[in-house]
Amino acid sequence: MTVVGRSVLRTADVVVVGAGAVGAACAYFAARAGLRVVVLDRGPVAGGTSSAGEGNLLLSDKEPGPELDLALLSSRVWTTDLAEHGHHWEYEAKGGLVVGDDAAGQAALEAFAVHQRAAGIEAVVVAHDDLPAYEPHLNRDVAGGVFYAQDAQVQPMLLTAHLLRLARGLGAQVVTGSEVTGFLRDGERVTGVRTRTGQVSADAVINASGTWSGEVARLAGVDLPVLPRRGFVLVTQPLPPLVRHKVYGAGYVADVASSDEALQTSPVVEGTPSGTILVGASRERVGFDRTPSLPVLARLAAAAAALFPVLRDASLIRAYAGFRPYCPDHLPVLGPDPRAPGLWHACGHEGAGIGLSVGTGHLLAQALTGVTPEVDLHPFRPERFEPTGTPATEELAGAH
Amino acid sequence: MSTTETAGPPRTPHGDLAVVGAGPAGLAAAVAAAERGLAVVVVDAGTQPGGQYWRHPDEQAEAGLGPHADAEELPAHPVGQHDWQVYVRLRERFDALRSAGAIAHVPGAQVWFVERTGGAEREGWRLRTSPTVEPDDRVPAEVTATALVLCPGGYDRQLPVAGWDLPGVMAAGGVQALLKGHGSLAGRRAVVAGTGPFLLPVAAGLAEAGAEVLGVCEANAVTGWARQLGGAAQSPRKGLDAVGYVRTMLAHRIPYRQRTVVTAIGGRDQVESVTTARLGRDGTVVPGSERTAAVDLVALGWGFTPSLELVTAVGADTRVDVDDSLVAVVDDDQRSTVPGVYVAGEATGVGGAALALLEGELAGLAAAADLGRDTSPIGSRRLRGGIRRGRAFARAMHRAHPVPATWTSWLTPETLVCRCEEVDVATVRRARDELGGGDFRTAKLLTRTGMGWCQGRVCGFATALLAAEDAGRGLTVEDLRPTSKRTLGTPLSLGRLADLAEVPAGQIPLDLEPSDPADR
Hints:
CATH architecture of the largest domain in chain B: 3-Layer(bba) Sandwich
Oligomer: heterodimer
Number of helices of chain A: 10
Largest sheet of chain A: 9 strands, mixed
Number of strands of chain A: 19
Number of strands of chain B: 22
Order of helices and strands of chain A: EEHEEHEHEHEEHEEEEHEEHEEHEEEHH
Largest interface: A-B, 61 and 45 residues
CATH superfamily of the largest domain in chain A: FAD/NAD(P)-binding domain
Shape of chain A: globular
CATH topology of the largest domain in chain A: FAD/NAD(P)-binding domain
Number of domains of chain A: 2
CATH topology of the largest domain in chain B: FAD/NAD(P)-binding domain
CATH superfamily of the largest domain in chain B: FAD/NAD(P)-binding domain
Helix content of chain B: 25-40%
CATH class of the largest domain in chain A: Alpha Beta
C-alpha cells in the first residue's frame, strides 16, 4: 500500500522525487538492481503529466539521434524485461500509421522513413490504395502513409501505479502527499531531502518531477530549463472499433520538433481498449494555464474530422489538459548533475515520457550501480544548458 | 432581444443577465431581475419552465396550448404537484415579461461550455449551447450576457447496492419525474428506500397513482429530528408538507420503516425482489433482520447532488456542505467568488424549492443592483432572513439524514460502483489498497469508474467515499471537485465542435471537408 504523508524510512540508497511514469520506472529498475528506494511525491500517484497523456510509445516520430537511441532501448525493455507485466498496463503493439495529405507530404514522409530505417526502425510505405486495409474509415483523399509496426500504447496511469507496486514488492517505499521542500547538503554534495514531515538521507536523489523539475532543481541551487508545453486531448464516447492504429498527420513530426511558442495542432487519432477514441495533439507554451481553450479544442476536432469523417457524429464526453516537460533542445535531462554531486535528473521528456520512461529507468539504474549505461548519457547531461566554457561542461565533454 | 420562434438559425441572444436553469431558483431570479429592468435570457435544458420540481406534462401536446401558453391556461392541479399555485403565479409574471420582451426564453438548450468575453466584445460571458435533444435548430449556438445567475439544480444522489444495475431500480427523483411529466407509473409493487424527507412524496405519489408501496425504508431514525428541532421548527411550511405526505401514507397503509436499508436487489433481467434489513445502533445490519419481498420497482434516494459543472467552469470557489455535497461558496447576496456570477438554489446547498425561490429572487435583485438598477433594500433584507431560516432547516435535515458511515458493509465485492463502465467494488478497493487510488480522481483514472457516459455524475460520490474509506477521513473539496469539474459540461458531437474551428485555409494539415456545404 502507498504510504501517505510520512516516510517510515529515514535512509535509503536512492530517493526518487516524483511518482509519475519516469519516477516509477527509475524506482522499479533501481530496486531491481538491489538498491533501497524511497519515492516521494507531493500529490498522488501519477498526479501530473503522466495522467494527462495518451500513453504513446513511439518510434515513428523520432529522427535518428540520441532520443531515438533511447526510444529503441525503451522499445526493447517494453518487449523483453517488462513483457510479462504488459497486461497490467494494457500494453498494445497496435502500430502507428502516419499519413500524408498530398503527394508532396507523402514524399516527405517516405524520405524521412528512409533515414529511420537506416537507424533500425521498421517503416513500411503504404500506397493510397492500400490505406483502407489499414484504416477502413480513413478519409479517401489522403495521399498515402507510412506504417510503423513498433509503435505501441499503454495506459499510463496503470503503468505508473503497477511499476510502483512492483517496486514496492522489491522493497521500495512510496510516499504520496509528501512534498520535498529542500535538500540535505554536505558541502556541495546532496545527501538527501527534506519534507514537511521529516527528512530522508540518501546517496543519490533522482529528480523525476516532470514539468515541475525546474522547481525541484532550484531547491538544490541548480538551473534546469524545463518548461511546460500545454496539450489538450478530446475523448469520445465508447465506440465500436473505428480506428485500429495510432493515426496521425505528417505535420505532427514537425510540430513535435518545433520550438515555436505559438499554438500548433496536428491530428492524432487513436482508439483505446475501452472503446473511447482519443484526439490530440496541440502544443502551446502558455505556462501552467489550465483554462480550457475553445479555439484549440475546436481545431483538434476539425483536424480529427478531416482524417476520419465518421467521427463527426461521435459524441465527445471529456477533454483534458496536460503540460509536457519541455527542454529547449527537445532532449530529456538524464544522469548525475556535476553542479550538485549526489543529485541526478530524469526529466524533460516532453511528450514522450511514457514511452521513454522504462529506458530511462533502466539507464539510471545502470549508472547508479556503476554499470556503463547502454545508451550514452552525454547528450542528455544536465549541465548542457550552462553558458559554454563552464568547468563542468568542459570536464565532461573532454571525457567523451 | 428575440425569442427562438423565428425560422432559420437564431441570432445570438444577448442579455444584461443570463439565467441558467428555469426551476424555482432560475424563474425567481429571472423575474426579479427583469422586473427591475434587466434584459434577461433564460437558458434551460427543459422544454418548458419549471425545472424538476415543477415538471409537468407537455403543455402543447397534452393541454392543446400554443408554444407560449398563458399561465391561466395551465392545468389547475396536475398530478403529483406541490406548491402549484406558487408556480402559476411565478409563471404569470414570467410570461408577462416574456411577452414584453424583457425575458428571452431559450428552452431545450444545455450549456456545454462557458467562457469570458472581453476585448473587442462587451465584457461578460458566453454560454455555448446545444440542443438537449438533437436535432433542434431553434436552439442558438451561444448566448452572451454581462452577468450570470447559475441555477443548475441537482439530481438524485445514489449509492451502489447489489443488484442496483437491474432495470426496475430507479432514482427516487426519476420515479417522481415520470409521474409528474407523463403521469406514468414506473412499477406496480414498489419499495422506496434511502434517506431524507424526499422519500415521502415519492411514496405518496406512487400510491396515489395506484401502485402498491410495500414500504419506505429510511436509513436513519426519525428521532434524529427531535434533536434538530431548533432548526426545523423555524420552517413551519415544511412541517405542513410532511403532515400531508404522512396522511397519504396512512391512507394507503404504507409502512415507514426507520433504521432500515435495502441491502440487495434480486432478479434476472428485471427487478424481482428486494432485501431489506434493520440497522443497529452502531449502524451495522442486525443479524436475522433481513426480509425479502417480491417487487418490480425499487426507488432509491440518498439526498441530492448539486450540478456544479458551470460553477467550477467559471472558476468559482466551492466548499463541502453538511451533507457532503460540493456546493458553491456565495455571499449574503448569492454572489459567487467570481465577480458577475451569482448562484442560487441547490448548487449553493441542497435545501429544496422554497429556499431556492428565495435565493433565486435575491440573486436576481443583487444582479440588478450590481448592474445599476434600483432595488429595495427592504426586500433583500426580508429575503436574507428567509434564506437564513431555510438554511438552518436544511442543515437540520441533512444532520438528521446522513448517509450511514456503514453503507459499504452491505456491498458485495461484485457490486458495481460504476454502471457505465461496469467497475465493481473489489476493483475500486484493490486500486485504493494496492495502486494508490486513495482519492476520486486517481481511483477513476486507475479503474475507469466515472469515465463512462455519465462522467461520474452517478458514481462520483460513492467512488469518492470508497476511495477515502480506508484513510478514515471525511470528503474534502479536493475529493469532490474532480467529480464535478468537466471541461465539456455536457456531451457534444465532435462535428459541432469542429465547426467552431477558426482556421485560415491550409492551417489544418488535412483540410478535406466535403466541398459542398449543402451536403451537411
